[in-house]
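Action item from last week, closing it out:
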Amino acid sequence: MIIVLSPAKSLDYDTPPHIKKHTIPDFVDDAAELIGGLRRLSPQQIGTLMSISDPLAQLNFQRYHDWSTRFDTDNAKQAVLAFNGDVYEGFSAKTLSAADLDYAQNHVRVLSGLYGLLRPLDLLQPYRLEMGTRFANARGKDLYAFWGERITQALNTQLKKNTKATRVLVNCASEEYFKSVKPKLLDAPVITPVFQDWKGGRYKIISFHAKRARGLMARFAVENRVNEPEQLKAFDAEGYGFDADASNDSTYIFRRRIAD
């Protein structure tokens, strides 16, 4: 079983990592190609392309300039310890043991506009490049064209290490990022957990809570060494529970009811 997550815009390079073990991303050459194109943009062009403020545009202009094909612990940090958004607050990798992170290394992947596909312990140099950015490049009009089938092929390579019964992709990524995966070319079925909260008299997806829950789900799978879809149904973090009546074979609905 492989769980895929989206990355985070917010990054933490101030907190020292609690483990030393790390790996190098598989798609460094591809990332370098993208960086080469991004370096040709001015801060103003970056701001327009990404719809971000002038200070953020200047920050990322500098990040692209500083980015290197040499990855070490001086210029990079393990991906799941560097990402710092809602999903990663739920995953809380900094409180996972070394054994847990070893398990995550084989069962969790992060989709990335710049790096394509990351393992949890892959070193990450700071960047901002969302998958949905319409950044024209030598391979096409946007990042989906740039990555093509590469991400799917990499997932298939990892999935083949599982037995047929456990060869499943669990989609805990956003729609923007999961569009970089081609389900029809995957050698495994896809299961998408959906997290809903009771609000205004009905169950609905509330973005902040859903993002955090995706991270909680990934943590649950890691801590409990989940490797079969049926085991995911036991997820009950922070009041969520599996709703069998609302779910089907490809969509697992988890709901919780809190006071309006």
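Closing note: The two ends are 36 Å apart (CA to CA).
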